[in-house]
Amino acid sequence: MSIIFQHSRILSPADNLDTVASLKVSDTGLIETIVPGNGAIAASDDDRIIDMHGKMLVPGLFDMHCHFREPGQEYKETLATGAEAAVSGGFTGVALMPNTRPVIDSPPGVAYIRHHAAELPVDLEVVGAMTIESRGETLSPFGKFRSYGVTAISDDGTAIQNSHIMRLAFEYASNFDLLVIQHCEDKSLTQGGVMNEGRFSTILGLKGIPDAAEAIILARDLHLMRYLQQHKLHDPLNPPRYHVAHISTKAALELVRQAKAEGLKVTCEVTPHHFTLTDEDLFRAESKGNFIMKPPLCSAENRQAVLDAIMDGTIDVIATDHAPHAAHEKECPPDQAMFGITGLETAVGLTVSELVSTGIITMRRAVEMLSVNPRTIMNLPPIRFREGEKANFTLLDPDREWTVLKENLKSKSHNTPFIGRRLQGKAVGIFHKGRYTDSFANESAG
User: Fold this and answer.
1) 238 has pLDDT over 90
2) Which CATH superfamily is domain 60-377 in?
3) pLDDT over threshold 70, residue 377
4) Which of 185, 114, 119 is nearest to 145 (CA)?
5) Is 321 a catalytic site residue?
6) Which neighbouring-strand residues pair with 424?
7) For helices 250-262 and 212-230, what crossing angle results, to 10°?
């Protein structure tokens, strides 16, 4: 059975395409026909027709920073429930961070994820641990990772504190053209911290996390990159590639701007919660657990710097840092709450509501940040809207207004501060791996 998407707005930055068209996908999952304009594609009795009424087809969204908790913490999330949350949010692929139990620091861990992901409706890319058990002491087998199709490494949740080990990681990663993803945090400054250090942490009596902790590690890493390039201490064909995870401060953004201007291969991502909320939102919240994350919700000044960096192109990617936790790990005093929130299912709505509808970015730029750029940075094949190409796209309704309801969330955990929030923009479904999946299946009215 073929599927025909009639009267869609097809927005594909890689194809420089933003037009109304109808599109037919064959029963083999390939794009068979694209008819531009308002004309409809003739259907046979066996074809399924989805009338888009102006809704959008965009290249499948990709989240390059997720935690699905399997193996080891399946009570929070599994590969299957994480995939359901991804589909609900409109993502056809995600990259999974390695801080599971055990840590994904060797090929068997990668093989486990790939085996169990084969029948899921979304792609699961594996980010390998940078060091054994993410302890920051001994490098993981980068070469073996590469042979298993891994394209990125990270000790997400922590940063390598030893500068010598970090230098070796850059050199070793260069040999295999692996992307280094860094969670920038000077742990000597953040130990015991709960929220952003400032006025609101003082009023609440909670130990603060200084925003300098992010910039200090980032500055060190950029200095190492400069040193290695200056002295040609890396693979000449593959200079180190460095990606800053969940960037959140003005000082760190200035460092990224400078590094990009110098020609260093540096990119960065921002989460929807960091461009939407501040530490004042945590201060005013009655239940604070779902506002606790790392990096912490920043000051209003830092949030404005994030918005400015999104607007001027310094920030390349919107990534969710989807971090599910069980209720008892969040419904507790804030200084006992686990760090992190879920994000896959609210990312599109927050992006459209906070960035597109406000004129900070265009819908085209949003698609670049949510789909094109993360795939490019991760060295994954691009998605093209061309006849004969595999169909991999997300169906979006940028005008749909909806309310985030706990009972509609597909993730196994519901630790989000956005319950009850009214948003604009939602995924309608995805088409990937030869099948169409409706994002609204079994959803109650919202």
Assistant:
1) no
2) Metal-dependent hydrolases (3.20.20.140)
3) yes
4) 114
5) yes
6) 401
7) 10
Distances (CA, A) of 18 to 37, 245, 320: 11, 30, 26
Q: Is the pLDDT of residue 443 over 80?
A: no
Greatest alpha-carbon pair distance for the chain in Å reads 67
| pTM across the whole model | 0.96
Distances, alpha carbon 328 to alpha carbons 108, 228, 293, 386, in Å:
31, 46, 16, 48
In Å, how far are 111, 140, 263, 399, 413 from 107, measured between CA atoms? 6, 10, 33, 44, 28
Q: What kind and span of H or E run contains 153?
A: strand 152-154
- With 50 as the cut, is the pLDDT of residue 442 above it? no
Query: Across residues 304-315, what is the average pLDDT?
Result: 98
CATH 2.30.40.10 in the chain: give the residue spans: 3-57+389-399+421-438
Which homologous superfamily is 3-57+389-399+421-438 in? Urease, subunit C, domain 1 (2.30.40.10)
Q: Which of 63, 155, 321, 397 is catalytic?
A: 321
CB neighbour burial string for 22-36, b if at least 16 within 10 angstroms, e if fewer? bbbbeeebebbebee
CB 3 within 8 A of CB 48: yes
